[in-house]
Design a protein that fits this description.
The complex is a heterotrimer of chains A (402), B (251) and C (475).
Chain A: H1 3-7, H2 17-32, E1 74-79, E2 82-87, E3 92-95, H3 101-110, H4 117-125, E4 128-134, E5 142-148, E6 151-153, E7 155-161, E8 166-175, E9 179-189, E10 194-203, E11 207-216, E12 221-230, E13 233-242, E14 247-256, E15 261-270, E16 276-285, E17 290-299, E18 306-316, E19 322-331, E20 336-345, H5 349-357, H6 362-378, H7 384-393, H8 398-401
Parallel strand pairs in A: 1-5, 4-7, 5-8, 6-9, 7-9, 8-10, 9-11, 10-12, 11-13, 12-14, 13-15, 14-16, 15-17, 16-18, 17-19, 18-20
Antiparallel strand pairs in A: 1-2, 3-4
Chain B: E1 3-12, E2 15-25, E3 30-34, H1 41-49, E4 55-63, E5 66-67, H2 73-78, E6 81-84, E7 91-95, H3 96-110, H4 118-131, E8 142-143, H5 149-163, E9 167-171, H6 179-192, E10 198-202, E11 216-221, E12 224-229, H7 232-246
Parallel strand pairs in B: 3-10, 3-11, 6-9, 9-10
Antiparallel strand pairs in B: 1-2, 1-4, 4-5, 7-8, 11-12
Helix pairs in contact in B: 4-5, 5-6
Chain C: H1 3-6, E1 24-26, H2 33-42, H3 47-61, E2 85-87, H4 97-105, E3 119-125, E4 128-132, H5 135-140, E5 144-147, H6 148-154, H7 156-162, H8 173-181, E6 186-190, E7 199-205, E8 216-221, E9 226-234, E10 241-244, E11 247-252, E12 257-264, E13 276-287, E14 293-300, E15 305-308, E16 311-314, E17 320-329, E18 334-343, E19 349-359, E20 363-372, E21 380-390, E22 395-404, E23 410-419, H9 422-430, H10 435-446, H11 448-451, H12 456-470
Parallel strand pairs in C: 3-7, 6-8, 7-9, 8-11, 9-12, 10-13, 11-13, 12-14, 13-15, 13-16, 14-17, 15-18, 16-18, 17-19, 18-20, 19-21, 20-22, 21-23
Antiparallel strand pairs in C: 1-2, 3-4, 5-6
The chains are: A alpha/beta (402), B alpha/beta (251), C alpha/beta (475).
Chain lengths: 402, 251, 475
């Protein structure tokens, strides 16, 4: 790791003395950290080697991306981790260089220390630091399109949704050459704020790590709608802390791909009373694919009257499919209703036979049953932008359903 | 008097629900307490039984001269008070029979009596279950576990029959029951009517009073007994609603 | 009843906390090759076993104590422990009456005439087995039930074949330590087609101060046989911690069934967490043949720290593994316990039912692995894992690991966390039941699914133990 390179990188960290000092400390910490191994419970099932393959190493500067499809509404495009075009109206977009010192100080504090290698590396080596602020209600979602093609790419987004404001973000990812994107989004939801957050990774061919860290103020609500298709290695991570009476609803689908490995890691912390968490994640795993979901719900002694539920279900579709699930509860308060459920299984032979006996060909019958399996999550997808993408990927290609 | 309530004033979360309530019930009598929703009928039942969350600001409640309000809930039960709950809670894994045995053991111990032998208890429990039209395997099932609303109500009556309390409060024993079930519940109550036992039936509708004839009917309004009368009062309520009988009352 | 009341200090109701005043032969504290040689010579062991111990010791020296469990304790000074302590024998045949008294006081049936119907007992006191009942009756059926030290002398070929075959000496830190220094324990062999006519039972007692107890149990059920085995454990109340690092190996051959039940009531330490047993135990069974069945049932109320995961390797096709557990922690107790079900064979089935109850300032964790290997077509697992919290200062945790490599297997896992509700308590109290009995009643109901799996005599004992353990857990 080349600290000198990181420190002088033009993302804006080096512009003022306070940030420079803060950044130097982070760089020092990074020098003491190594990539996680499987002894780390949160990386127990991760097949990380793809991220560090030689062809994806180094800092990618430029890449000849094809001309993009035009976007409408409010949007930002980040190529190689840096914003190349944007159109925003209700959302306010600023780079770190444009922030006043008070805002910078606030965010330095919010980007609190972390012992995770990838998180610290993202902060230290960020290609660009963007702040997105929403102060009112935005009717249409802000679309964020990431494209990467060479080396390590590390975008960093800071999102501030003011008290009472409501909006939606949709992140989509696409890759065009051997590269690893190690991105992070830090969400800060004020009192009563509401954010619907879509994450769609089906055009991602390369290694991707994407971490969402969210802090929910009192009565705030975060509604996550994620669709992950992993062709190489992919890890989506949510680290959410809920304030009093806040609500997290997290719904996701993993569509495994042959030779691909998809990780989902959830760390959900109830630190204030009366908060609600409802997680529902479903995975489809074809031959030679791997899907892992690790979910921890932590209820602090201050998290009384918590209501938390987590359901993690997988369908293994063929020989050679692999799934690992670790739903955890860590509870230090007694007045709680917490539960989790997990299943790993296959399509129901009886149901399949029933459909075929009614004249439906096997491939079609399997598709129907897979749709039925995904339905409880799809029902919770309200973002048109995500649904449009998801429906273009479902029903599954024949090889996955066969 | 078996039960004497004087000037009972109770608040819930700072709001006065009962406000200077007086009530006397003599041994051998059945009283009905009626009133519109939210009048504080269940509050009275819960305060007498000793549930948490009620602040007694003033007044007293005596059962056979004993000051109920200073006693622990189990001590009130041991003194002979029984509350048939409006919404009985489920206790998974604890069979009805085991629950009854434990309760009886505790009650008998408090009275200085030896434990009832298992065969006698089983016999009595089976008989009571049959009387209430409950199936034979009912006693083996967990307390209220997966019971229908009607089964829960009948289970309350079954416990009442076996624990033989001296003073019974029935909190909405008729809500959600069809006529057949209602008759069974009423039969259970009538079976226990005795000169040394008294009942307070809390109900919103006069329907159950067709089957269990009360000696007195009270209407709770404004935190106190606004009107009292004979059984006839219940018919007036049925005919004209609460507004008609409360007209010109003190509250 | 308020949660503050619920949380009122838990009184110590440990009834097995007395010390037996008896002359013992002990080694000085410390562990090196000489200690191992001494133990081996003392027990007149064949060379293979002496060498096996030394190999294990060398492995242990290279290993580190596991740190991943959700428990916290000060480092153990392994050189400060005594590795061998045995009550002195007056003669070869006579047993010290004080020992008999000890077991009688604990309610263990050591006199054959007064014994519980159908239970044979092996009593282990500190490092050695002091008596075994009903040996003759068992011998008639061809069942071997004796101290493992005796089995080493009489049936060395069986011991050599199976010892370490399920839990190899290098399996983990505590298993390695046990393999090096194990002193005694029970040995069971049930021949082909025999249904063991008695319940077998071992009663473990740590008496001597600063003594580690390292028993080793080996149970082999030959083809088509059946055996039910129960272990009970207690220790005196002492201010320092005592280490108990046992290894239990079960082998069920084709069509055989082993039921293994544990009622663990080691001294849990006092309210401030002083003293108590560190129960770091490795228990594993191998369903070696087709249709074999191994069932673990445990009721854990004791120990300052429990670290144990009775597991089943489901190697034979159609084999069955079960784990039924009640773990109650209170005071400052910490438990990290659960199971591993490793499905290798086709159509293997496993069931896990775990009930954790946390009270006081205790921490209670379930940790369980269900692994479906590529060859385990048609495998099924069902896991139900419930936690009950009593009071606001304790913790209840669930850490399941579910791994599948076969699309024709089905794994289902459900977990819930709740508390003894104020509604339930009030309901019981309104019926005249005092709060302590009410909590015991509600907790007993919560544990019902597991108690039903215990042999009848022990289900009663377990219920009582739970009641005693809960005494004072409410205000």
């Amino acid at each position: 790791m080349n600290t000198a390179l990181a420190v002088c990188h033009p993302c804006g960290w080096a512009e003022d003395a306070a940030t420079r000092a803060w950044h130097e400390q982070l760089a020092e910490r990074l020098a003491t950290l190594t990539p996680p191994t499987r002894k780390n419970e949160f990386w127990r099932y991760s097949r990380l080697s793809a991220c560090f393959a030689p062809e994806r190493a180094g800092r990618g500067l430029d890449f000849p991306f094809p001309s993009p499809e035009p976007l409408t509404g409010e949007w930002i495009r980040l190529d190689q981790g840096r914003p190349v075009a944007a159109h925003t109206r209700v959302w306010r977009l600023r780079s770190w260089s444009e922030l006043d010192e008070a805002t910078r100080a606030r965010w330095r504090e919010r980007l609190e220390p972390d012992e995770d290698y990838f998180a610290v590396r993202n902060l230290v080596e960020a290609d660009a630091v963007l702040l997105l602020e929403l102060e009112q209600t935005a009717d249409a979602p802000l679309q964020i399109q990431y494209r990467h093609g060479a080396g390590w790419v590390q975008p960093l987004l800071l999102v501030d949704v003011a008290a009472g404001a409501r909006g939606a973000l949709v992140e989509t990812f696409a890759s065009f050459g051997p590269s690893t994107q190690n991105g992070a989004v830090h969400l800060w939801l004020g009192e009563g704020a509401e954010l619907t957050h879509g994450v769609f990774t089906a055009d991602e061919e390369q290694a991707l790590l994407h971490r969402v860290r969210a802090r929910l103020g009192a009565r705030a609500r975060l509604d996550v709608q994620a669709f992950a298709a992993a062709r190489r290695y992919q890890r989506l991570e949510w680290d959410v802390t809920l304030g009093e009476s806040a609500t997290l609803r997290l719904s996701g689908i993993t569509q495994g791909e042959p030779e691909g490995s998809a990780d989902v890691a959830l760390r959900i912390r109830h630190a204030a009373p009366g908060a609600t968490t409802d997680v529902r994640w479903r995975g489809l795993v074809p031959a030679a694919a791997h899907s892992a979901v690790i979910g921890r719900i932590l209820i602090e002694p201050t998290g009384q009257r918590t209501d938390a539920a987590m359901r993690l279900d997988h369908l293994l579709l063929a020989d050679g499919a692999a799934a690992d699930v670790k739903p955890e509860l860590e509870i230090y308060a007694d007045d709680v209703a917490c539960g989790h459920g997990a299943t790993l299984g296959r399509l129901d032979d009886e149901a399949l036979f029933y459909l075929r006996s009614r004249g439906i060909p096997e491939v079609e019958a399997r598709r129907l049953l897979i749709d039925a399996f995904l339905a409880p999550v799809l029902q919770r997808f309200t973002l048109a932008e995500v649904l449009r993408h998801v429906h273009s990927r479902l029903p599954l290609p024949d090889d996955a359903a066969a | 008097m078996m039960l004497t309530i004087r000037n009972l004033t109770v608040a819930v979360e700072g709001r006065r629900i009962l406000d200077g309530l007086d009530l006397d019930i003599a041994a051998g009598e059945v009283h009905a307490l009626m009133g519109p929703n939210g009048a504080g009928k269940s509050t009275l039942a819960n305060v007498l039984a000793g549930r948490e969350g009620y602040e007694v600001l003033e007044g007293k409640a005596l059962l056979d001269g004993q000051d109920l309000l200073t006693m622990e809930p189990e001590a009130r039960a041991q003194a002979g008070l029984f509350l048939s709950f409006q919404h009985p809670v489920e206790i998974p894994g604890v069979s009805n029979l085991q629950f009854l045995r434990t309760a009886l053991d505790c009650l008998r111990k408090a009275r200085g009596e030896p434990p009832l032998d298992s065969a006698a208890l089983l016999r009595a429990a089976r008989e009571a279950a049959q009387l209430l039209g409950l199936p034979a395997d009912f006693l083996k099932r967990g307390v209220n576990e997966g019971f229908s609303g009607g089964e829960k109500k009948r289970n309350e009556i079954l416990q009442m029959l076996l624990l033989e309390p001296r003073f019974v409060i029935l909190d909405e024993p008729d809500s959600g029951l069809d006529v057949d079930a209602l008759k069974l519940v009423a039969a259970g109550v009538n079976r226990l009517r005795r000169p040394d036992r008294a009942f307070l039936i809390i109900t919103h509708y006069p329907r159950i009073l067709e089957y269990v004839r009360p000696d007195r009917v009270h209407v709770l309004h404004g935190g106190r007994i606004a009107r009292s009368g004979e059984a006839e009062l219940a018919h007036q309520i049925e005919a004209g609603g609460y507004a008609a009988v409360l007209e010109g009352s003190v509250a | 009843m308020s949660t503050a009341e619920l949380d009122a200090a838990l009184s110590q109701a440990y009834e097995a906390g007395f010390v037996t005043d008896i002359e013992t032969e002990t080694l000085p504290p410390g562990l090196d090759e000489k200690v191992i040689e001494y133990i081996s010579v003392k027990k007149n062991e064949p060379d293979f076993l002496r060498q096996w111990r030394l190999n294990a010791f060398h492995r242990w020296q290279t290993m580190r104590e596991p740190r991943w469990a959700h428990v916290h304790y000060e480092p153990i000074d392994y050189q400060g422990l005594i590795y061998y302590a045995a009550p002195k024998r007056r003669s070869e045949t006579e047993i010290d009456p004080k020992l008999l008294e000890t077991y009688e006081k604990l309610g263990v049936p050591v006199h054959e005439r007064a014994a519980l119907a159908g239970v044979a007992v092996d009593a282990v006191f500190d490092s050695v087995s002091v008596l075994t009942t009903f040996k003759d009756k068992l011998a008639e059926a061809g069942v071997i039930f004796c101290p493992i030290s005796e089995a080493v002398q009489k049936y060395p070929e069986l011991v050599q074949k199976y010892l370490g075959s399920v839990v190899p000496p290098g399996d983990n830190f505590f298993a390695a330590l046990n393999s090096a220094v194990f002193s005694d324990g029970s040995f069971v062999y049930v021949p082909k087609g025999v249904r063991c006519p008695l319940e077998l039972s071992t009663y473990f007692r740590i008496n001597t101060a600063r003594t580690g107890q390292f028993e080793r149990t080996l149970i082999i059920a030959d083809e088509g046989s059946y055996v039910s085995y129960l272990e009970g454990c207690t220790a005196p109340m002492r201010d320092e911690h005592q280490l108990h690092a046992a290894v239990v190996e079960l082998i069920a051959l084709e069509g055989a069934e082993i039921r293994y039940s544990t009622v663990q009531n080691w001294y849990p330490g006092d309210e401030e967490g002083r003293g108590g047993v560190y129960n770091f135990v490795t228990k594993r069974g191998l369903c070696a043949g087709r249709g074999a069945k191994i069932s673990w049932t445990q009721v854990e109320t004791g120990s300052a720290i429990t670290w144990k995961y009775p597991s089943v390797i489901l190697k034979g096709d159609d084999s069955v593994g079960e784990f039924y557990s009640v773990a109650l922690t209170r005071g400052r107790q910490q438990a990290d316990t659960g199971t591993k079900m490793i499905h290798l064979g086709r159509n293997t089935r496993s069931t896990i039912v775990s009930k954790g109850i946390a009270a006081g300032h205790s921490q209670n964790a379930y940790r369980g692995l269900v692994r479906i290997n590529p060859g385990a077509s048609g495998a099924r697992n069902y896991t139900q894992c419930d936690s009950l919290l009593i009071g606001p200062h304790c913790g209840a945790h669930t850490f399941p690991y579910i791994e599948s490599r076969n699309p024709r297997a089905i794994v289902e896992h459900e977990a819930s966390t709740s508390r003894v509700s104020e509604e339930q308590l009030f309901y019981c109290r309104q019926r005249g039941i005092d709060p302590e009995r009410a909590v015991a009643l509600i907790v007993g109901g919560f544990c019902k699914d597991v108690f039903q799996k215990l042999p009848l005599e022990f289900a009663v004992e377990a219920g009582k133990l739970l009641e005693v353990s809960l005494e004072g857990s409410v205000g």
